[in-house]
Design a protein that fits this description.
By secondary structure, the chain is mostly helical. It contains 41 helices and four strands.
């Protein structure tokens, strides 16, 4: 960097004096203030024609910009921006201008100020940064100019440009993001920073991209498709993965920005096989000395990155595919190894448990694998048991216990197999006294003196029963030995005993968490399980205890317990099957009206959803509590309350008559549903039969067309054979005549008289045979003519009428099928109308009149009777259709048989005709040969025409004589 002066006569002295004044040198006269000095420097930047003068002035502004930030920013910003536009060829002055702008805009320097400065000074500095940022962004072209400068490779331009843009993003992120997004190749220019060989620029480029991608999905997608994943993973490996420094942390923060709540980037990350490249990050051993603060931070971010991919807030399909990929590539196995490893810091272990939880949540394959994981102990214990031991241990950190609870919940989420295995460890037939099971740990935590253990165990056991009626009934079999000499009691009774014995609750310190946990367990257990409701009501102390709790006027802390008691009592009403005479639905509602009051009961029930912690628990499945005292609600329980609150309120307000009417309507609807089900089955059968008939009709039509085409083809072949026969006969006659005219008389004298006689005899014999063959040929011609006439007759009026009748029958059958389908559709419409009216009648039972109820019932019965009659008609119509179809099928079969016979006769006639033609040809050849021999011997041989003429003359003479 050059800082020399240009030797110009007279000018050097002025410049030196000016700089002395600026930099604090001793000059004669009053010293200028900082504002005046900055004003002079700005004038020099604006008016100097020499580049070196402007450069010196900008360097002086840079040196003053940190201490006199406000004045430099207010007076010089426009001049500095002008320098960026005009002096593009000088990298040194560009660097000074960018550094000055950064010092003015950035708020980072305020952190280095003395601790003696108060908060007002700090706030004033932040306001200055925002003020100057807004001034810089008044023209969006300034950001475009800055992006252009970042293409400069010179370190003195690129590095301060990166820092300046980062400061602008920190102060006005949304506005700068919008400008960069619409700038041509804006994001691509910033991505080039990751490829810079100078680490300081690359590292600051990571910070810049972190600010750029915050909360902007469009920029996140562009950055991802600019090969950001590949480059960031490469940098992470180059820097040492989890053992790396702060650069690895920056890469991981940027990856989290790109993937969090961005389904497109998550899918791109998975499809690019980048999940597989995360597995080496978690290859950590049992070395207790290798956990530096930076490594803990890096590994925490790596686990967070895994959770981003399988978060419950993602779409179920995307989460499931990522879970499958993590199992297949071995990432889940690696996480479970860390889970069971020793020497892992508590915060990493907690985050790892949460990560494993979401990797297995709702994935049957991953849940099965997790169930098979054993801790490296002697003897080996399942990982679930080891984790539950930590959950019910009050000496463990609170956040770790919450993480174990979340892991257990995720293991049982939509996992009926796992639920059955957990409940089975509590059943008498599967208890092993020599080993610790999950059920034993849950029971131990449920009845321990630690309220946090009570709550966690109750919620965990409730998740083992979630949406699983079978396990709710199985858990009723669990028996507990309370003390020596006393009979065992059921788990359900023991839970209710703890709730009903108020004096023990007082001795336990009136801990609300214990009672809330037990009440949530009981509500989950007996909901949608009438058998469990019966068992609960069978204990005579339960209902009086609940009514007493609800009716009392207690403090604010007890309102939640009152609301949960109201919910439990409401479940006993709603899912009551009236099997206990003393606690039927009606008697329980009368008890509420007398002891509590309906309005008061509903008000107490509403305390649950109005609680602040209820709304917080309903947001996400993971149990996260700022403090142990706020651990009250479970996410799945909030869903149950939301489902049951309205149903219980409606059930409590109904009168006995309304209940009876509702039961009657339910029975009617059930009967109607049964009828509808029968109709559905009948319609399905009829649809199948109609489809079969349609297929048969189509097949028959096609076969008939094929037969007609075959007959036409055979007729054409017969005509061709007749034509060939006539042509052959004419040809043979012409050849005989031609050969007889061209023969000589050279061999007449060589033959003897005996030979002449033999030849004459043979000639006579051949003539007789020829006559016989001609007779047979005539007969065959007659047969062929008869076949032709029969075929024409089949295609003529008679046959055509048969085919026409068949086609008409088939068309009528199709029309009937269509009519049948229309009737079925009409029946479906009537059924839907009937169901709608039934539902309307059910919904109106809150204030119906007797007349309207009877009318609705009568209308329902009449509609059912009409539907039954219509069904019988449809059955009769279907029988008629089947008969007509059978008749049409037999007619088609007869026609097929007749056509087959015609085809066979035609084939035989064709074969015989061919044989006759061959015989006639041989016979004519022999006759011709013999005639030729006779002529050669000198005998007179008559032609066929002469013989025919002579025979005709003799016949006429015989007629004259007669």
């Amino acid at each position: 960097m050059r800082i020399g002066l240009i030797c110009v006569p007279g000018l050097g002295r002025c410049r030196m004096n000016f700089l002395r004044g600026v930099m604090g040198g001793q000059t004669a006269g009053p010293q200028p203030t900082e504002a005046e000095t900055i004003q002079k420097l700005c004038d020099r930047v604006a008016s100097s024609t020499l580049l070196e003068d402007r450069r010196d002035a900008v360097r002086a502004l840079k040196s003053l910009s940190k201490k006199y930030r406000k004045e430099v920013g207010r007076q010089s910003m426009d001049h500095l921006i002008n320098i960026l536009q005009t002096d593009r060829t000088d990298s040194e002055i560009l660097g000074y201008a960018l550094d000055t702008l950064y010092n003015v805009i950035s708020n980072d320097e305020e952190e280095e100020q003395d601790e003696s400065e108060d908060e007002n000074a700090q706030k004033q500095g932040d306001d200055l940064g925002t003020l100057f940022t807004e001034k810089f962004l008044q023209d969006p072209e300034h950001i475009t100019l800055l992006l252009t400068l970042l293409e400069e490779f010179d370190f003195h331009v690129r590095w301060p440009g990166v820092k300046l843009l980062t400061a602008l993003l920190k102060n006005q992120g949304i506005q700068v993001q919008g400008i960069v997004l619409v700038s041509p190749m804006g994001v691509s220019r910033l991505m080039d920073l990751l490829a810079d060989s100078r680490e300081v620029i690359r590292n600051d480029g990571l910070l810049l991209l972190q600010q750029l991608t915050k909360g902007n999905a469009a920029i996140q997608k562009i950055v991802a498709f600019e090969n950001a994943f590949e480059r960031l993973l490469d940098i992470t490996i180059e820097e040492g993965s989890s053992d790396g420094g702060i650069v690895v942390e920056d890469c991981l923060l940027l990856l989290v920005n790109l993937l969090k709540n961005n389904s497109s980037n998550q899918n791109f990350f998975k499809e690019g096989s980048y999940i597989q490249r995360m597995k080496p990050w978690f290859e950590v051993g049992n070395d207790n000395s290798g956990w530096s603060a930076q490594k803990v931070t890096n590994l925490h971010l790596m686990l967070q990155l895994v959770r981003v991919m399988v978060s419950p807030v993602n779409s179920p399909g995307a989460t499931a595919s990522c879970q499958k990929c993590m199992y297949q590539c071995g990432l889940l196995q690696q996480l479970c190894t860390i889970l069971m490893a020793t020497g892992v810091p508590a915060d990493i272990l907690t985050e790892n448990i949460n990560t494993v939880s979401e990797v297995i949540r709702g994935s049957q394959v991953n849940q099965d694998y997790f169930a098979s994981v054993n801790a490296p102990s002697n003897p080996p214990r399942p990982a679930i048991v080891v984790l539950l031991m930590s959950m019910v241990n009050e000496r463990q950190p609170f956040v770790l216990r919450c993480a174990v609870l979340y892991c257990f919940q995720c293991f049982l989420y939509r996992n009926q197999k796992g639920q059955g295995e957990i409940v089975a460890t509590l059943l008498p037939s599967t208890i092993d006294a020599n080993s610790i099971s999950a059920g034993q740990l849950l029971c131990g935590g449920l009845f321990s003196v630690d309220s946090h253990s009570n709550w966690c165990a109750a919620v965990a056991l409730a998740h083992a029963l979630q949406d699983n009626l079978t396990q709710k009934e199985q858990l009723l079999r669990v028996q507990l030995a309370t003390s020596l000499g006393k009979p065992p009691v059921s788990l359900l009774q023991q839970c209710t005993n703890i709730l009903s014995q108020g004096d023990k609750i007082v001795r336990r310190g009136s801990k609300v968490q214990t009672r809330v946990g037990l009440l949530m367990l009981l509500c989950t257990w007996i909901s949608n399980c009438p058998i469990a409701v019966t068992h609960f009501l069978h204990n005579q102390d339960n209902v009086p205890f609940l009514t007493a709790q609800i009716s009392e006027n207690l403090g604010e802390d007890e309102r939640l317990v009152q609301g949960l008691c109201a919910l439990l009592l409401g479940i006993c009403i709603y899912y009551n099957d009236n099997s206990l005479e003393n606690y039927t639905k009606e008697k329980l509602k009368q008890l509420i009206e007398k002891r509590i009051g309906k309005e008061n009961f509903v008000e107490k029930l509403g305390f649950i959803t109005k609680h602040e912690l209820y709304s917080r628990a309903a947001l996400k499945p993971q149990p996260v509590f700022p403090s142990p005292e706020q651990m009250l609600f479970d996410h799945e329980f909030t869903r149950l309350v939301k489902e049951l609150e309205g149903l219980i309120t409606k059930a409590v307000h109904k009168s006995s008559e309304e209940d009876k009417k509702e039961e009657e309507v339910k029975k009617t609807l059930e009967q109607h549903d049964n009828i509808v089900t029968q109709y559905k089955e009948l319609i399905r059968e009829q649809d199948a039969q109609i489809q079969e008939l349609k297929e048969k009709v189509v097949s028959m039509t096609t076969h008939t067309e094929q037969l007609q085409a075959t007959v036409s083809q055979q007729q054409s072949q017969i005509q061709q054979h007749k034509d060939q026969y006539n042509i052959l006969k004419l040809k043979l006659g012409k050849e005989n005549q031609s050969q007889s005219n061209n023969q000589g008389d050279t061999q007449v004298n060589g033959l003897q008289t005996e030979e002449l006689s033999q030849l004459r005899e043979q000639l006579e014999e051949l003539r007789r045979q020829q006559t016989l063959l001609q007779t047979q040929l005539s007969e065959k011609d007659a047969v062929i003519d008869s076949l032709k006439s029969a075929t024409q007759a089949a295609e003529g009026p008679a046959g055509g009428s048969d085919n026409t009748e068949l086609l008409q029958e088939l068309e009528a059958l199709k029309n009937q099928v269509q009519s049948h389908l229309a009737e079925i559709g009409h029946l479906k419409a009537e059924r839907q109308e009937l169901q709608r009216r039934a539902e309307a009648a059910s919904s109106d039972t809150a204030h119906p009149s007797d007349n309207s109820s009877d009318a609705a019932k009568a209308e329902l019965e009449s509609r059912l009777a009409a539907q039954t009659s219509e069904t019988e008609k449809l059955k009769e119509s279907r029988s008629e259709l089947e008969k007509q179809l059978a008749s049409a099928t037999s007619t088609v079969a007869i026609l097929q048989t007749e056509k087959s016979k015609l085809q066979t006769e035609v084939q035989e006639s064709k074969k015989e005709q061919d044989d006759l033609l061959m015989l006639l040809a041989d016979q004519d050849q022999k006759i011709h040969s013999l005639k030729q021999k006779l002529k050669d011997l000198g005998e007179t041989v008559e032609d066929e025409d002469d013989i025919d003429a002579r025979d005709q003359t003799s016949d006429e003479e015989d007629e004259d004589e007669d």
